[in-house]
Each structure stands twice: as C-alpha cells, then as structure tokens.
Write a structure and sequence with these properties.
This protein has 598 residues and is mainly β. The chain is 3% helix and 59% strand. The strands form 3 sheets. It has a 22-stranded antiparallel barrel. Strands 2-7-8-5-6 form a 5-stranded mixed beta sheet. The chain is globular, with a radius of gyration of 23 Å.
Length: 598
C-alpha cells in the first residue's frame, strides 16, 4: 500500500470560529440512536465519526452465536480468537493492540484491570443484546483511557412486548448451545431475563469449553424519571491449549467468573436532562499452565471496579464527571488498588444549515500517573442530500495494565516504571447515498503513538515489559451496502500500514495487525419464511499468509412460534490462525430450533 502524505488531511477550522455556531436541538431518541460516538443523543446520520452498528435484526438473521462472531463483520475490527463461540478472544480496531480497545456495556466501562484478554468475558448472551456499536478512532475525550483504536458498546435489550423464547442448537465436536429468555412489558415497565449456556468437546484435544451466563435488565418509569437496573453473571471453563504459550504444547486450563451490576437513573433537573449511574464489575481468573502438573504453575486473580458517573445534557451540550476505584489481588501480580476521576464536556453546534461541529474535552486524574488531558474535534459537512464530508482529530491514552506493571514468573517480568501510552489520531472521509438502495463511505486515518508498551527480551533472558516504540499507523477504510428486492449486499474493506520508530529490539507481540481485511455479506429473504446468507471474510496479517473463511446460514420460520436454522462455519475448511501457533476449527456444521410464545 502506498504511503499517505500529510496533504491528504484536512486543515481544521480555528476554535474561535466555533463561537459563531448556534446550538442544534437534540432529537428524540429512537431505534437509530447510538451513544458510543457522543454523550449527546442523536441519529446515526448526523455523526461525524466512523461508527458501525450491528443490529438485532442482523444478529438474528445470521444466527450469530456470540458477540465475537458479530464483531468479525465490523469495519476495521479484528477479532483474534483462541476458541469459537466467544470462548476466548482479543479485539483490535484499526491495527491497535488488544489492550487499546475500550469495551462498554450499556455505555459503562467494562475494562479488566488484570489484562484486556478478559475484556470480552461479557455476562450477557447475544439473545439479550439489542445492538453492537463499533466506534473507529480515539474516544478518550468521552470515556477516558484505553480507546486508542476505538470503542465497542454492547447495548442490552428492553422488552417491546410480552414474550418468552427458548432456543437449542447442536453442531460438530459435541457442541451445543441453549438459551431461554423471558420478556415482560407494560406501561412504563420492561424486564428482560435471559439464561444461556454453551458446551463443546473441542475440535482438538484440550480445546473443550463449558460456558453459561444469566442476565436481567429492568427499566421503570418513575414519575418524571426512568430507572434502569442491569445485573449479569457469567462463568467459563476452557481447555486452553497453548493459549498464552503458542507452540509449547502445554495442556492448559482456565476458569473465569464475571459479575456486573449497573444502576442508572435519568430525570429532568434544573432545566436539563440529568443521568446518574453507579456500577460494579468483579472478575475472577484461575489459570493452570499444565493441568497434568498443577503445581508447576498456577495463578489466581480477582479484580474489581466500583464506579459512578453523572451527565447533564441540554440542547447540543453535555458535561459531567466520573470516578472509579479499582483493586486487584493475585498470586503472581500481588495486591494493588488505585483511584481515578475525570471531568468531561462535549459541545455540538452548527455553522449554517449544512455543517455540524462536535467538540470534546476530558481531564482525567489517575492516582499513579497524575493528569491526562484528552481533546477531540470533529466536523460533518452535508454538501448535498446524498453526499457528506467528515473529519475528526483526537488524543488518546492508556495506563499500563497490572500484568504489564507487576506480573512475575520465570519467563516474564513486569515493569512498575512503565509510562502511559499516548497517541494523536486524525481522519477524513465521505459518505454517500445513491438512490434509495445504495450507500457507500470511505475514511482515511493516521494514528501517531508514543511510549507504546511491548515485551522485549535480550538473549535468553525473560520477557520484560517496556516503553520501547513509536508507531505511525495509516489506513484506508471503505464500505458499501446495496439492496434490491429481497437481496441485500454488504462490502467492508480496510487496508493498513505501520511505520515502526522503535529501537530494533525483539518484541513478544510485535506486529500482528491486518494489512488487509474485509468481508462480503450476501443476504436473501424472506421467501415464504426462508432467509439465506453467505458471509465471506478475508485477512492478511503482517508477517503471515492470507486466508479466507466462508460461513453460511439459513433460517426458516415455520409459523409464528417455531423457527429452524442451519449454520456452516469455515465451509472451505481453511487452515488459519488469528494468533500464531493457535489453530482454529476447520469446517463446522450445525443447526437448531427456536420457539417463541407471545
């Protein structure tokens, strides 16, 4: 891919011009509202940032098994799986490391203090998810640390009506999945209770898994306000062959447990909309490096976070604050705790009738690292009803994980003197609509990072965490969708290249970003209750061979209560690895049944 020059980027308008802008009234929330790109409500068409939304309809139509399965089709998202059905997966966006993506659950930070390997241990199944929002680019001005490459927001469901549903699926390798959902809706009342589980004997030895989760979301109208309560619990037991030691052939085992609770209240206050939330997250992890020799290496870690935030909103403005305390207790990391707090503000305004500008600013305080200021600015210019231009810039940062700071074993050594990673990102692009059936868009971006953290090794010594690299990541993204009758086609493609400004040392993780990746989704139906879809994804990582994976699915609604589905994963039986040394399954066939009572 050719190297992009600075001339490709737009000159931002001076801040003093923003005083001429008038406020834009906030539109009433509806099904198209997404929150990950802004603290100010609005519809997706108004966004000046790159956002992909995977809807409930798409999740059901493709019979997706997990959040990780859904994210595979997000533009710029790179899911690095160690096992199917979301058993264990790392997430990268725009070539970031897996530590540089922020995961949110209903807009609340869900990051793990031990390591981002556990950020996808979500205590909620796809049956309880309304949509998945993927923000590409920095989000520290909104949510604080970690959002270098982007952020993912998992939005849970409210009940539109009274309904009960149950699903069961069976597939190769002794794999099965079951779920039950109970939905209750009334005047100012909604409750969604969901229980689900997955099990598999594994496609190879020591790659079996057992997973289950339960979640409940309650929403109540109380006088002039609304109360939302979410509680979720999830457990996993995994055969973890070479999950963290690729190539050594060690029959590892891992157990995790996740608890999440979120309480939020929204009401008018002082002529503004006021939201107050409080949350807690606890994660337990037990890992045996060799289950045949339990005493050889074992690590148990429990980490917990307790936080609260508040947001005032009026017109095109929002401001608020956030505070969180985190604590960790680990046999290999030790016992630690810290406190962080932040103040943030966002302003959205228009210049004339065609240009919208969004400004964000956040000041974070970390007990260990002090103050971090994260500004952002974005603009969208509607040149015509069918064409718009957008651009944005922002600063992001990430504090080291406790694994990077304090972990110790014979082969790895943390570094308590690590500095936070920091980056500036800039992007520009366009969106277009051709007629009523075709949409298209493209984005060019560049991210300049410094103090990037990796693990280095000299001769035969242990790996040691260090701030060793400067990195320039440049990329181009393109997507288009088209519809004709019952046929829908989607194409998403990205290209990236990186310039390393490091010292030439040997890195443990190094460059695993996809130089080229994309997906084609072809969906047809319904035809007398039948939907058919094909999903082709391809990827070429730096230093690895390219591969393509073809998935297919079909669903048939027998009547109002009964539906059937068939799924085929990796139809071409590709031999591929998201992480070197960790093979993924070949061809995988299955099917299932779902019953709805309304």
């Amino acid at each position: 891919m050719k190297k992009f020059t600075a001339a490709a980027y737009f000159p931002f308008l001076p801040f003093w011009i923003f005083s001429l802008f008038r406020q834009i009234p906030v539109r009433a929330p509806d099904a198209s509202v997404q929150v990950v790109a802004s603290r100010i409500p609005g519809v997706l068409a108004d966004r000046s940032r790159g956002v992909t939304v995977i809807t409930r309809e798409e999740i059901e139509r493709m019979s997706l098994r997990s959040t990780a399965d859904a994210l595979r089709f997000g533009l710029g998202a790179d899911v690095q799986e160690r096992g199917p059905a979301g058993a264990q997966a790392d997430l990268s966006i725009r070539g970031s490391t897996f530590q540089q993506v922020l995961v949110l659950l209903d807009g609340v930070r869900f990051g793990d203090l031990q390591t981002a390997h556990h950020n996808m241990d979500l205590p909620v199944g796809v049956e309880a998810i309304e949509r998945i929002e993927i923000l590409r680019g920095p989000a520290s001005s909104l949510y604080g640390p970690d959002a270098f490459g982007g952020a993912v927001n998992i939005v849970t469901r409210n009940a539109p009506r009274n309904r009960a549903s149950a699903g069961l699926s069976l597939s190769d390798f002794g794999t099965s999945a079951a779920s039950v959902s109970l939905e209750k809706a009334g005047d100012g009342f909604s409750n969604v209770l969901s229980v689900g589980g997955d099990r598999s004997d594994g496609f190879i030895e020591d790659r079996d898994y057992r997973m289950w989760r339960v979640s409940d979301k309650l929403s109540l109208r109380t006088g002039r306000g609304r109360l939302d309560v979410f509680a979720g619990h999830g457990r996993k037991e995994l055969g973890a062959l070479d999950f963290y030691t690729p190539g050594l052939g060690l029959p590892s085992r891992e157990w995790t447990r996740t608890d999440f609770f979120n309480l939020g209240y929204e009401t008018p206050l002082l002529g503004m909309s006021f939201t107050q939330r409080a949350w807690s997250r606890t994660h337990f992890d037990r890992f045996l490096l060799d289950r045949k020799r339990p005493a050889y290496y074992e690590n148990e870690t429990t980490n917990s976070s307790l936080g609260t935030d508040f947001v005032f909103r009026k017109g095109g403005a929002a401001f608020g604050g956030e505070a969180e305390r985190g604590a960790i207790a680990s046999s290999k990391i030790g016992n630690h705790a810290d406190v962080r707090a932040a103040l943030f503000a966002e302003y959205r305004a228009s210049l004339g009738r065609r240009m919208i500008v969004n400004l964000g600013l956040r000041q974070d305080f970390h007990e260990t690292y002090g103050l971090s200021l994260s500004p952002s600015a974005s603009v969208i210019w509607t040149i015509s009803p069918s064409f718009s231009w957008k651009a944005s810039a922002g600063h992001s940062f990430r504090a080291p994980s406790y694994t990077e700071l304090c972990y110790r074993d014979p082969a790895n050594e943390g570094n308590p003197d690590l500095r936070p990673e920091r980056a500036w990102s800039i992007e520009t692009g366009w969106d277009a609509r051709i007629g009523g059936a075709i949409t298209a868009g493209a984005t060019l971006f560049r991210r300049s990072e410094k103090d990037l953290i990796d693990w280095i090794r000299e001769s035969a010594g242990p790996w040691r965490a260090a701030n060793i690299r400067r990195l320039e990541m440049t990329g181009l993204e393109f997507e288009t969708t088209a519809a004709a009758g019952i046929i829908r086609l989607g194409l998403r493609q990205s290209w990236m290249t990186a310039a390393d400004r490091g010292s030439g040392l040997v890195y443990k993780y190094g460059f695993r970003y996809p130089r080229s990746q994309g997906s084609i989704l072809l969906d047809a139906g319904p035809i007398r209750g039948l939907n058919v879809n094909l999903r082709l994804s391809h990827k070429k990582r730096a230093g690895q061979s390219a591969y393509a994976v073809l998935d297919a699915g079909a669903s048939f609604r027998v009547d109002e209560k009964l539906s059937l589905h068939l799924n085929a994963s990796n139809l071409l039986n590709a031999d591929y690895r998201d992480i070197p040394g960790i093979p993924l399954p070949g061809r995988w066939l299955g099917g299932g049944i779902k019953i709805d009572w309304r």
